Amino acid sequence: MENVLRPLIVVGGSVVLTVVVGWLVDVLLRRTDERRRETPLWGLLRRCRVPLQVVLCTALLRGSYRQAQIAEDHSAGIGRALSLVLIGSTAWLVVRIATAVVESSYARYAAAHRDPARVRRVRTQVTLIQRVVTAIVGVVAVAAMLLTFPAMQAAGASLLASAGILGIVAGVAAQSTLGNLFAGLQIAFGDMVRLGDTVVVDGEWGTVDEITLTFLTVRTWDERRITMPVSYFTSKPFENWSRGGAQMTGTVFFQLDHTAPVAQMREKLHEILRDCAAWDGRDWGLAVTDTTPNTIQVRALVTAKDADDIWTVRVTVREQLVLWLTERHPYALPKVNTAWAEPAPNGHRPHPVTPETPRTGRG
Known about the structure:
The chain is of the alpha+beta class and about 375 residues long. It has helices at about 1-35, 40-45, 50-70, 75-110, 115-145, 150-160, 165-175, 175-190, 230-235, 260-275, 305-330; strands at about 200, 205-210, 215-220, 225-230, 240, 250-255, 280-290, 295-305. About 20% of the residues are buried.
């Protein structure tokens, strides 16, 4: 009877104590979160309940499994397995706590500052800090797991003795990786590019979707993902349309006939912008910017709060102005002048034919 009760008391007691402690911690965090709504830290820490319970249960079993007298012939293997689980769950708990602290800090900063550029910069920095912490904790956890094996402990001395040579070899082999690593830190804390920035790289327009320590992902307007090493942004020029503020000014060009009603076009442009929700109301204008023997170049100037809206405003203005010209003032569209290339068979040249062929210009 004792052989049955002892394992049940040890294992069951560990599980019950773990469940009770986890429940008490969750209740305490929930009540604290309800009293302190200004910070989301306590609510985020509730995500740590599962790894906390795993750590607590594993620690209790690791310290009392010998008293249970279960599979005594394999006690060394059971102890090592519990040690591995304890190390892994502890690393899991540390990562969850660090993530909660980082996310809480970012949430409080974003709530206190209304500048989108500064908020994106801090989000980039805390994201990379979180990745660095996760990587460090993971490496330490793996190293601690390996050291639980006697063979690894014996090999430790020889590894330390050859650390100098291995360091040189690793430095040469991982030169590009280390370069990307330092480039990622430079981007995060040098404020060169941030999550959510609108950039143009290699002729591709898109939004920065992800930044890690080694690569950066740009989401293009057609939902493609361009992944490139972060060292690209520290060694080559690129356009950052969000630098210094997200507001943008755009232009739409039209190639029209000299008889185009510019004044009426200006009024129509203002009417179109008033009905366009993407226009921010900062500025607008329409002017003749160039002329050729056959056409004039008309430029419409519009503004918007960011790159996505400026695209919407430009295509709206282009579409509606061309439609308005086609319906109300077709004579203003450019014409292609044609004439007979060769004389008629009777030797008389007919009068030149000049059909009016409308075509639109694109800005």
